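Good day; I would like, with your permission, to put a structural problem before you. What I wish to show you is a protein chain and, alongside it, a tokenised description of its three-dimensional fold. Here, with my thanks, is the record as I have it:
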Amino acid sequence: MPPLSRRHFLTRTASATTAAALAGHHAFSLTPATAANVASGPGRKAPFKVLYSNDATNITSCIAPWRTKGAPLRKEMIEATVDEVAGTGVDAHFLQPGLGMVPMWPSKVIPLKEHYEWIQQRYGTGPDSFGNFVLRGGDVVQVFLDRCKARGQAGFISVRLNDAHHKERAGFEPKDKPGASIGMSVTRHYVAHPEYWLREKSEKGRGYDLVQNWAEREVRVHKFKLIEELCENYDLDGIELDFMRFYNFFRPEETKQAQRRDIMTSFVSDVRALLDRTERNGKRRWLCARVPAILKAHDPLGIHLPSMVAAGLDMVNLSVSYFTVQQTDLAAIRASIPDASVYHELCHSIWNGTKLTPGYDTFSFRRTTKEQYHTTAHLAYARGADGVSAFNFAYYREHGGPGRGPFSEPPFEVFNKIADRQWLAQQPQHWFLAPGWNNPFVRPPILPRKVETGETAVFTLDLAPPKDGWQRDGRLRLQLAPEFPTCKWKAFINGTELAANALVAEPFPNPYPSMLGTPAQMRAWTVPAALLVDGKNKIEFTLESGEAMEMDYFDLAMV
């Protein structure tokens, strides 16, 4: 017998430990957690470099070259979403077929004819465009996977484990007009069992509070059955378990760390065994998890990545929910799971503003630029990432409520070089810190931050130098609210005071004007290249005079 690899050793050890831990515990496993059914294969890493997430709903919510406003779903639209990233560098395409509650495929777990008849009776609304497509004989998953195969992309299905969209409308009556989207968000079983919700009522009207309690075995079994149906019926390359939609699974006051970890690791183990059981032609089916890039969020969600990797998780997709964020715990996570492929997620937005009108998708947002994508990927590789992923990338296109533009086509050309580490290491750098994900795990949030006269705000930026080091001076900019042109600020990097710079304009051409600072909101300073270090850099801003201000954003351009 050949010697065990480190990964196989951890797999067997964790399997035995998990099996013992689950005995007499309310975590479930559809199959015993033995070394045989969680074995992680040959031990090689997943080969993919650029993952592309397709949430499906963008197909009917965005205006695109292949879709006019209001047009219903057609097979050709699904295919177009695969075609538009073909040849760009994307090598694995992840479809989220809906919200993880109601299938976008012919299903025996939730027969759609019965489901939408109940939706009509309960809410007085008909099927959404995806429901109609499947009811008329279509299959969103099959069309997607066939097109991926034809276009040379690995086809993954990403399953949202606890999505919150529209859950706040579950108690609506027909007179409340819940909208067609309710049909993809709730099921008869969900509505009939409010005892499985994390909170039976949300005081703030948030679907986030009304997602299901994963301490309940039946909740997990139901989700597993949907994944099982996908694995048994489709020739897919892999499954992604999306812990980010939404990041709320347990009542913390009722569960302990060990319980949460046992439940989630057991679920990963079960899905690994399912993928192995249903593989075709001896071809490994990959298992990915989309998880927070912030370690503080892991324990509340039951995530312990070393245990999950030992149980057969191949790929870890590090997400900051809806945003491109540079400052994460990627390096520490990488060190904890050396045998898994790790990806850093890139998104279309770095900062969302306030809602302009009531409803979904009505807020302004600051688009991510190509320089910010390049710099974020460069840092990710420097800290150990194997690749990058893209989420919500289609939403540069027109969608949602009024006043959020101007819109544009997504910058798909970014993918052409996003896996080329040497090329990225020679590009201009645009570092930034923005409000980004206002998550419940980091309080108070890093930004925005109110600063009183005489106070100093201190931040840390992890920076990675270009190939030959920083050679030229750069520029640090600070964006404030409200406009107050007479206030006076000082800035420091690594303890050295910086000289003020009158140039406050964007450091690179920016085709996306939404939420950019006005000249009266901006301050700038010159940054000598010699001040910066590879790793953690201390950034300080001191309000010397003027009224209290809110710091919303700052960036550092090094060219």
Notes: DSSP finds 16 helices and 20 strands in the chain. The radius of gyration is 24 Å. The chain has two domains: 6-98+137-161+235-433, 449-558. Residues 1-28, 30-42 have pLDDT under 50 and may be disordered.
